[in-house]
Amino acid sequence: MKLKVAILSFSVFAYTGFTAQNIQNNPGSNHGNRFEQLGTILPTPNIYRTASGAPGHGYWQNRADYTINAYLDEDKRNLKGSETITYYNNSPDDLDYIWLQLDENQQSTVKKADFPSSSTLPKASNDQQLRPTELPASDNGYGVNLEKVTDASGTPLKYTVNKTMMRIDLPKVLKKGEKLVFKVDWNYNIPNRIKMGGRGGYENFAEDGNDLYTMTQWYPRMCVYSDFHGWQNHQFTGRGEFALVFGNFKVNMNVPADHVVGGTGECKNYDQVLTAEQLARYNKSRTSGEPVEIVTLDEAKKAEKNHSKQRKTWSFEANDVRDFAWTSSRKFVWDGMGVTIPENNNKVMAMSFYPKEAYNLYRKYSTKAVAHTIKTYSEFTIPYPYPVAQSVEAANGMEYPMICFNYGRTEKDGTYSEGIKNGMLGVVIHEVGHNFFPMIINSDERQWSWMDEGLNTFVEYLTEERWDNKFPSKRGPAWTITDYMKLPKDQLEPIMSNSENIIQFGPNAYSKPATGLNILRETIMGRELFDKAFKTYAKRWAFRHPEPADFFRTMEDASGEDLDWFWRGWFYGTDPVDIAIDKVTIATPDLETAPREAKENKYKVDKPAQNDFEDISKIRNREDKNITFYVDKDKEAQDFYYRYDRGQEKVDNTKEYVLKTEGTEPLTQKEKDKFKNMTAYQIDFTNKGGLVMPIILEFTFEDGTKLKDKSSAQIWRLNEQKVSKTYYFDKKLKSIQLDPMRETADIDTSNNFWSNDGGNTQVSKFDLFKQKEAGATRGASNGRVNPMQAAGKKN
């Protein structure tokens, strides 16, 4: 027998869980602000950022171009640099000072930003940690040593260093539309990043006596000056990442002659730094369908044995990037292949650099994962615009334009586990994906970690799924976030928290925003609508500086969905999802219901009432001779609707109205036969967690058939604690499963199931009759009389 279902089909019996009685019985407890607009929580739109989420007609951003010469001294493990910065003031403001970032000062014991954390006695320690505490700490010799800061002509500029920030006072105001050219010479001792931590530094391989350098945050960099923040000069503590301006880079790296260098952008002198064989392999790789070894494993092993005292200079150029990073080592195997991005026909060199310790993994997968990532992200955001995308195995994960550092080494015999392989693939996809967030869609990481980590982790999840449908993704699926969401409230903070203040950084900045976006895509908005809106955000803010409101507003503007309730709960709150099935009431129709005759009720409406007490404003308004009061001749009629809708029936003899209720007729035998097998099921739900979500149900019937239904989250808008839904089936239900695919991140699934042999069941009957068609004046499904219809029934 074909299953038939009528959902809320009889307005007389339809029940969605909200009545006036609910409000009276639960005054003030059932309706909070979960569905209110974000309103003043979001910044006021202006000419720079519109209410639609798009850049406004007055949008601007400043720019910085760099020419840098770097000298890597491997013996001293020191980096010496000289840069010329051309800074363009595109803002409407005159600037009398500028700010630069000196990130390497975070490695210094005396120059660092010093954001201390609470500490307790350890249960165990190691020899590196167990040493006398120095008060005050002595200088460990790390951090930036400024040698010279001058204008273009060599005249010294006044500057002040405040921990990881440097302010340069300008000899004259830098006006709107003007540019400033200045020079900085500096050096610093390169830290051992394996022992000291941090994103940049060297790793030493004791077995062969070689270093692998990852040169990041290595040059004084311009801070962002913006319409929404002014100077973003918050200190760098190692946690909150970076806010940077776009520009063009020309960088020369002087390194030992046997080193291989990879960097942001394109190398302009491969013909000078590669052997003829290596150059031929590079040219071959550009059109190959498979990765080609440009520097082979044998060449890398041979280079490890001889430390050349000769020098080579590698020259790179990169346009429209926000940063520049590079890597250098004689240990590197280097492979690459050409990739075409279909959306813009961009020819990209996908490349990987890795030591022999990672060869068996990276040779098989790294460059292919790079190619897969930029192609997949291009589908979901914007076409990849750069000429290069590179992955470097460096025992850590960190991202920069066109180059990123990842982990993934094999055992000494070259073997590896499935877990190591998947971890390596996940980090390569994630770090390469950062080319889009925040390298192109350039959010402020120092303030909002989720805008790069969360958005990127979401698209990483989509990309992992495209790589392998069984990929063990840990961030993105709704069910994976529940352990975090069920933590005590004192261990949680909203996603909308400053990067420095987050306790559970991984779940908060990565997992929860990624999961929320996946729920939006799969459960709330649907893939097609979500994908269009998400691409709109990427297109609008590519090579610009978006803020959270720009993302929230664009997603709504481009989709036609009011998502303020979702942003409020998921991003601004800490409530979890926990929806419970409380009770199921089963009712069958009484087919012998006696008919009812239509009735007329007369109502008399008085003149507008006045307050017994007049406030001071009314009195002063009457005394004010400059105020003329409007006389509303239709006040009586308007007052009737107002008063009637609120159940005010105390009247005088001014006007009289007649309201007619509906009459009913007995059912015919044919109609009785039609409805005799019909059963109504009222399902009562409680929002125990506080975060509203769609209600997704799977019905299983006694004959084994199944049916699914979903109610949008708006079902909670009038009562955020309790709602009910009634269904009419011509089959008997066996069980009901709430959220059967675990797609809402419900933290307690034990209260998501009902069966007809359970204890939370009530049985009853309901009257069923035939409604007369003539003379009916009843209003909508709530069964109330419509006063607008009644107004026409005048005596």
Automatic annotation (TrEMBL):
<dbReference type="Pfam" id="PF01433">
    <property type="entry name" value="Peptidase_M1"/>
</dbReference>
<feature type="domain" description="Peptidase M1 membrane alanine aminopeptidase">
    <location>
        <begin position="370"/>
        <end position="570"/>
    </location>
</feature>
<dbReference type="GO" id="GO:0005615">
    <property type="term" value="C:extracellular space"/>
</dbReference>
<dbReference type="GO" id="GO:0070006">
    <property type="term" value="F:metalloaminopeptidase activity"/>
</dbReference>
<dbReference type="InterPro" id="IPR027268">
    <property type="entry name" value="Peptidase_M4/M1_CTD_sf"/>
</dbReference>
<protein>
    <submittedName>
        <fullName>Aminopeptidase</fullName>
    </submittedName>
</protein>
<dbReference type="GO" id="GO:0042277">
    <property type="term" value="F:peptide binding"/>
</dbReference>
<dbReference type="InterPro" id="IPR014782">
    <property type="entry name" value="Peptidase_M1_dom"/>
</dbReference>
<feature type="region of interest" description="Disordered">
    <location>
        <begin position="774"/>
        <end position="795"/>
    </location>
</feature>
<dbReference type="GO" id="GO:0005737">
    <property type="term" value="C:cytoplasm"/>
</dbReference>
<dbReference type="GO" id="GO:0016020">
    <property type="term" value="C:membrane"/>
</dbReference>
<keyword id="KW-0378">Hydrolase</keyword>
<keyword id="KW-0732">Signal</keyword>
<keyword id="KW-0645">Protease</keyword>
<dbReference type="GO" id="GO:0043171">
    <property type="term" value="P:peptide catabolic process"/>
</dbReference>
<feature type="compositionally biased region" description="Polar residues">
    <location>
        <begin position="110"/>
        <end position="131"/>
    </location>
</feature>
<feature type="region of interest" description="Disordered">
    <location>
        <begin position="110"/>
        <end position="142"/>
    </location>
</feature>
<dbReference type="GO" id="GO:0008270">
    <property type="term" value="F:zinc ion binding"/>
</dbReference>
<feature type="signal peptide">
    <location>
        <begin position="1"/>
        <end position="20"/>
    </location>
</feature>
<keyword id="KW-0031">Aminopeptidase</keyword>
<dbReference type="InterPro" id="IPR050344">
    <property type="entry name" value="Peptidase_M1_aminopeptidases"/>
</dbReference>
